[in-house]
Amino acid sequence: MKKDIELVADVLVIGGGPAGTWAALTAASKGSKVVLVDKGYCGTSGATAPSGTGVWYVNPDEESRTKAKLGRFELGGRLAEDTWMNRVLDQTYENMNQLSAWGYPFPLNEEGNPHKTGLQGPEYMRLMRKIVHKAGVKILDHSPALELLADEHGVGGAVGVRQQTGETWKVEAGAVIIASGGCAFLSKALGCNVLTGDGYLMAAEAGADFSGMEFSNAYAISPIFSSVTKTAYYSYASFYYEDGSIVEGAGSKRGRSVIAKKISEGIKVFAVLDQAPEEIRPFLRISQTNFFLPFDRLGIDPFKDKFQITLRLEGTVRGTGGIQIVDETMKTLVQGLYAAGDAATRELICGGFTGGGSHNAAWAMSSGTLAGKGASEYAQRTGVGNRDLKGLSSVPITVGNSTFKTAEYVRAVQEEVMPYDRNLFRTEHKLAGSINRLDDLWKDIRNGSISIEGNAIKARESVAMTLTARHMFNAAINRKETRGMHKRIDFPQIDANQHYRLISSGLDEISVRPKPVEQEAILK
Amino acid sequence: MIELVSESKCVKCNLCVKVCPTNVFDKVDNDIPVIARQDDCQTCFMCELYCPVDALYVAPQADWNVSITEAVVENKGLIGSYREKVGWGPKRTPVASHGYIYELYKRAKF
Ligand SMILES: Cc1cc2nc3c(=O)[nH]c(=O)nc-3n(C[C@H](O)[C@H](O)[C@H](O)COP(=O)(O)OP(=O)(O)OC[C@H]3O[C@@H](n4cnc5c(N)ncnc54)[C@H](O)[C@@H]3O)c2cc1C
Ligand code: SF4
Ligand code: SF4
Description:
The structure holds two protein chains of two kinds.
Chain A: E1 5-14, H1 18-29, E2 34-37, E3 53-54, H2 62-71, H3 82-102, E4 118-119, H4 121-134, E5 138-140, E6 145-151, E7 154-161, E8 168-178, H5 198-206, E9 210-211, E10 218-223, E11 238-240, H6 256-264, E12 270-272, H7 281-287, H8 289-298, E13 307-315, E14 322-323, E15 337-339, H9 347-350, H10 359-382, E16 390-391, E17 397-398, H11 406-417, H12 420-424, H13 428-446, E18 450-451, H14 456-478, E19 500-505, E20 511-516
Parallel strand pairs in A: 1-2, 1-8, 2-5, 8-15, 17-18
Antiparallel strand pairs in A: 3-4, 6-7, 6-16, 7-8, 9-14, 9-19, 10-13, 11-12, 12-13, 19-20
Chain B: E1 2-5, H1 15-19, E2 25-26, E3 34-35, H2 46-50, E4 56-58, H3 70-75, H4 81-86, H5 99-107
Antiparallel strand pairs in B: 1-4, 2-3
The structure holds flavin-adenine dinucleotide and iron/sulfur cluster (2 copies).
One iron/sulfur cluster binds next to helix 1 of chain B.
């Protein structure tokens, strides 16, 4: 089928968040011809752009680095690897300094030097778009990828649609980088509704494996009315019941489970940032303007007024599972296919826990850079050539009318992944039930077909969420212990015999197998 | 959710149509854009930041509609308030460079 827009490139990048933009930029700087497609708009789309991130920027001296590496090591269930942490710390250090050189307006410290431990999302991603554009990368906005193209030599491109014109596009490329972020199941967590696991689906269809999909149950605190899932400031919060008495044990980090339990029992929980010392309140206001925005608009003073809270699912966005990576080129098991950012497993640097802050942003920029380099070298080595590429979608994408029960599928998946008593607090019994229902859903999906003229991307999102949920729960049922963010009510302890990764693979049948942790950080 | 495109302020530049990550707006020839798919709005406030004349208002409620009027949000000083705080627009300094960020870093407990 001829597409309205047909392009040829060395490297195709799918997704224009931090991982995708660093990947595109790096590939272009190595002399590759690069096309970047984004479902939304490169610069505003994805989890970083509207929110902003703390960044794992650590001075390269031995002492600071060791401290940084050990910081999350236990929380992550000892699944991070020393070599990877070193690699990412080095690359992040370099990239942050580069951002400063490009003119990102970091605040200054006492010595008048830029202070680089965080990035404001809108500012950062506007700058990244500018730099990517300058580097000669062709950007297609509102142009989601629908499926990958491949032949017997591996992946060689993708096809998609342009949402605002209805045109179809095809990019043939020597290598493809999946940087489409994680999956938050359309929960409306800040910036996350474009993140529906599309890249996981495309990678699985090409034959890639996943690692750590059990670490996929991140829930973030937000005011009940709001999308703003910024959680750091809740470390200054007290949590109350409706009658004004304190919720014992509730907290922003480990105490989040207490909050979840209450909410799932139908009890309302309220927060107020009354623990924030008076003198730092102005600093808090400036540092995360978006945290205060919803309150200001409703006339709530979050330091004084109690407001009802909820926990929104962020899935793998602030989880750590994702596409399995073979080596530091960020290649997957499939020839020509690379992954970066939330799309790729982050266990390598933070094990089974990330929560708020730093590691994710560092991973996105570092893995993006590495993938850009890896994919570019591969594409230049193998060339684009004349190939007989075929679409890999597990549900046929057709021309002409077809009905696909998108809304129904989305609702069905959400019913499995959103409830705290299924996904946050996991048990064999409930996981097995979810897996059965999701498998049935998958069979139904497989019998359908998606019309490229309809809302094809929404249909594909529903397929992607279903597959993501199946990988999550199949991994989760196989980890019969509590480790990192993965909580098993029936196995509440960590089990030294399960100190391994879980690799999951498949589409119709999902199989899960353990894999040893290569080289964990040496504990002092 | 996005609630308002101000007819009196909008200069029909269609930047909001371009930057909205979830493609909520539709361009209209010779007219202001329309909010065509409000249900798809993810309440990320990005359109407000890019609108050069503060013609948009995103209500903070993510999951339900609210009825507001331009006069009310204008009177409360809410329209354009986020762009101002972020320090975007002529003669403003990006909040990203604000010294308080460093001050917080020195004292923060998270
Ligand atoms: C509220 C919030 C606060 C956070 N705070 C922090 C923090 O303080 N520190 C930290 O380290 N991390 C933080 N994170 C996590 C961090 O934002 C992510 O890890 C980071 O954005 C990942 O970058 P990425 O490029 O992989 O994905 P994203 O930034 O999510 O970008 C993915 C891009 O892919 C595009 N895309 C998706 N599907 C397709 C498709 N089919 N075709 C084409 N394009 C597609 C999307 O439109 C999007 O632009 C936070 C996350 C949230 C939600
Ligand atoms: S960005 Fe603002 S001025 Fe431009 S079209 Fe949208 S509402 Fe109108
Ligand atoms: S708030 Fe975000 S999703 Fe909603 S219309 Fe504005 S840019 Fe689009």
